[in-house]
Design brief:
alpha/beta, 12% strand, globular, 321 residues, binds nicotinamide-adenine-dinucleotide, Rossmann fold, N-(1-d-carboxylethyl)-l-norvaline Dehydrogenase, domain 2
Length: 321
């Protein structure tokens, strides 16, 4: 059977991960990149993420027999933990090498990249003008039946539908960073999305190892960030007001809800720069004396000290010990 073709536009952090997960799950995957210099930047990224995914897959062998394994395994790479053995994982690892060699392609010519595509996933910079330019460039090159999705985190598909030339075949398919472990795929149509196409995108998300999470209407921030952003803001408010310290706030949350991590541990994982950028978007953050302004200053102090979270080795917690 001929492999279905997926095209990913944008070879950044998320585009690279999306393309690799599609390739791993057997889709013929083409990264469309805009220039030779983009190829120079994206190729090492593909290699790095491919190595990270393979490393986590290999590491899953050490989980065999661990009672916590079903919480810890890379869910985007292993469909179900039940019955998984070291031999199963060896088989998947062999398949991984083959998939990266055979299924991953890079193309600079947009018409060639899009030709014969089953689905195109736009994962470019979060910049409306750039995304509109991309849709306008591809609208006359796409095959009649090609489905078009955006991975945008903050922009709604209804903002772009008219530029795509195929609003009925367009919706959002939103992934999370470290897609091979955090395998959520929020599927969000706009009012003009054909329900049959929506269903097809849900099925596609499952086919590439994701858990499709269906939104019945447009919502800025989807499901996850609609809950997570206010939760993290409330924790930062308690900290900035001096009500309590990050450790105690986390402990309160963990003890009371049995959650594995509290808000400040989550902020370290997300990265303090992202938390700062989200905070600064609030108009009150620009007004001296507001709690948002205090949060901004406190986060900035930490960022300036290089304490930006897990990736830096230190954030609210020290990860070097
Ligand atoms: N980073 C995350 O954690 C995350 C999570 C979920 C969704 N997203 C979404 O994914 C999308 C990409 O985010 P990212 O973090 O991968 O960004 P990134 O900055 O790492 O990558 C953006 C890519 O877009 C390319 N690009 C920019 N302008 C372009 C143009 N005019 N033509 C062609 N290519 C262009 C860049 O070369 C780069 O490869 C955004 O819409 C973002 O909201 C990001």
């Amino acid at each position: 059977m001929q492999k279905k073709k997926v095209v990913v536009c944008g070879g950044g952090v998320l585009g690279t991960q999306i393309g690799l997960i599609c390739a791993y799950h057997g889709f013929d995957t083409t990264f469309w990149l805009r220039s030779e210099s983009s190829v120079g930047r994206t190729t090492p990224k593909i290699e790095r993420y491919a190595a990270l995914m393979a490393e986590d897959l290999k590491g899953a062998k050490t989980l065999v027999g661990n009672p916590m394994a079903s919480y810890l395994y890379p869910r985007g790479l292993i469909r179900s933990w039940e019955g998984t053995t070291a031999e199963t994982i060896d088989g998947l690892l062999a398949g991984w090498d083959k998939a990266v060699k055979e299924n991953v392609h890079i193309e600079l010519d947009l018409a060639k990249a899009l030709s014969g595509a089953y689905i195109v996933i736009e994962s470019m910079t979060e910049e409306p003008k750039a995304k509109i330019g991309m849709y306008e460039a591809m609208r006359d090159l796409l095959d009649k039946d090609t489905i078009l999705c955006t991975n945008s985190s903050t922009l709604l598909p209804s903002m772009f539908a008219e530029y795509t030339g195929r609003p009925e075949k367009y919706c959002a398919l939103h992934f999370a960073n470290t897609i091979w472990k955090n395998n959520t795929a929020e599927v969000m149509g706009h009012p003009g999305t054909d329900p049959e196409i929506y269903k097809e995108v849900v099925a596609f998300a499952a086919a590439i190892g994701m858990v499709p999470l269906q939104l019945h209407k447009e919502q800025p921030g989807y499901i996850l960030n609609s809950m997570l952003v206010p939760f993290l803001s409330a924790a930062q408010m308690l900290w900035a007001k001096g009500v309590s310290d990050p450790e105690t706030i986390d402990l309160t949350w963990q003890l009371a809800t049995s959650a594995p991590a509290g808000p400040f541990k989550i902020l370290d994982i997300v990265g303090l720069e992202t938390a700062y950028n989200i905070n600064q978007m609030k108009p009150a953050a620009q007004q001296e004396g507001t709690i948002e302004n205090m949060i901004g200053k406190l986060l900035k102090e930490k960022i300036d000290r290089g304490e930006t979270g897990v990736n830096a080795g230190k954030g609210f917690y020290d990860y070097t010990k």
